[in-house]
């Protein structure tokens, strides 16, 4: 099993450009998550999908959209990138219930100039 | 809203010394608590978790954590630190379908 995979690993954008970060898991997990990590701020939840067909906002959703394409895949889209979105983005998945462990991907380092 | 506080931004310990990383949480009911570790340039890996039962939880890599309800704490400990333990450590509390993370503690190990 590959676990949680993310593409790309690195990306540089110019202000106003758009892009989609891809995430896939092969563990048959129900829930998937997108976080951003900034120095001194820990991980902050952007969006999550508790199950296939549902998505919900997290703590910092502004400027982002998500799509739960199927049970395996959960993408994060930046429609018009801003320098404030420079960050490391992590995708995670979780099997099912409360208290289940979240499994994290390796991250995407995004720079917006 | 649930919250997690990790009061130490950086901690430096000597190799072979003991380690304790602090974590305090705010949660109304019995919490689900987690410790994750992140090596430089990597994703997060679960060290251990607490749901209920024995308040002393054993994890991977020789780590343990103790849940103290009266102090709303879930401190991470290791009796003897190795240079490879240098990393950033995150405490988290489960909040329904989500996790709420602390801001992390960076551990430096000096030889």
Walkthrough of the structure:
- The complex is a heterodimer of chains A (113) and B (111).
- By secondary structure, chain A is an all-beta fold.
- Chain A is 0% helix and 50% strand.
- Chain A has no helices and 11 strands.
- In chain A, strands 2, 4, 5, 6, 9, 10 and 11 form a 7-stranded mixed β-sheet that branches.
- Chain A is globular and about 40 Å long.
- Chain B is mainly beta.
- Helix content of chain B is 0%, strand content 54%.
- Chain B has no helices and 12 strands.
- In chain B, strands 2, 5, 6, 10, 11 and 12 form a 6-stranded mixed β-sheet that branches. A 4-stranded antiparallel β-sheet of chain B has the order 3-9-8-7, with no helix packed on it. A two-stranded antiparallel sheet of chain B has the order 1-4.
- The relative contact order of chain B is 0.34.
- Classes of the chains: A mainly beta (113), B mainly beta (111).
Uncertain runs of chain A = none
**Cα-atom radius of gyration of chain B:** 13 Å
Number of separate strands of chain B: 12
Straight-line N-to-C gap of chain A = 36 Å
The averaged pLDDT of chain B comes out at 93
Counting H and I runs of at least 4 residues, what is the number of helices of chain A? 0
By secondary-structure content and strand pairing, the structural class of chain B works out as mainly beta
Report the principal-axis shape of chain B: globular
Helix content bin of chain B: under 10%
Principal-axes shape call of chain A: globular
Q: Helix coverage percent of residues of chain A?
A: under 10%
What profile does the largest beta sheet of chain A have? Answer: 7 strands, mixed
Query: Which regions of chain B have little confidence, pLDDT < 50, spanning 5+ residues?
Result: none
Q: Please state the average pLDDT score of chain A.
A: 94
Most extensive chain-chain interface: A-B, 24 and 21 residues
Sheet-strand content of chain A, in percent, reads: over 45%
Assembly state:
heterodimer
- Count every beta strand of chain A, where a strand is a DSSP E run of 2 or more residues: 11
Secondary-structure element string of chain B: EEEEEEEEEEEE
Largest pleated sheet of chain B: 6 strands, mixed
Helix and strand composition category of chain A: mainly beta
């Amino acid at each position: 099993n590959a676990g949680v995979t993310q593409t790309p690993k690195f990306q540089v954008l110019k202000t106003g450009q758009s892009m989609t970060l891809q995430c896939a898991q092969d563990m048959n997990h129900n829930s998937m998550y997108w976080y951003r990590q900034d120095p001194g701020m820990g991980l902050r939840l952007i969006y999550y999908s508790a199950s296939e067909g549902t998505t919900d906002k997290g703590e910092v959703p502004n400027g982002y959209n998500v799509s739960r394409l199927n049970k395996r895949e959960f993408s994060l889209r930046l429609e018009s990138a801003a320098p404030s979105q420079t960050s490391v983005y992590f995708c995670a998945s979780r099997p099912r219930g409360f208290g289940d462990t979240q499994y994290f991907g390796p991250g995407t380092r995004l720079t917006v100039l | 809203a649930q919250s997690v506080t990790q009061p130490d931004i950086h901690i430096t310990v000597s190799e072979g010394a003991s380690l304790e990383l602090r974590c305090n949480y705010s949660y109304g009911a019995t919490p689900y608590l987690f410790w994750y570790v992140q090596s430089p340039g990597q994703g997060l890996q679960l060290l251990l978790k607490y749901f209920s039962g024995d308040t002393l939880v054993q994890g991977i890599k020789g780590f343990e954590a103790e849940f103290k309800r009266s102090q709303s704490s879930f401190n991470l400990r290791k009796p003897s630190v190795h240079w490879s333990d240098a990393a950033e450590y995150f405490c988290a509390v489960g909040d329904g379908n989500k996790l709420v993370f602390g801001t992390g503690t960076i551990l430096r190990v000096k030889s």
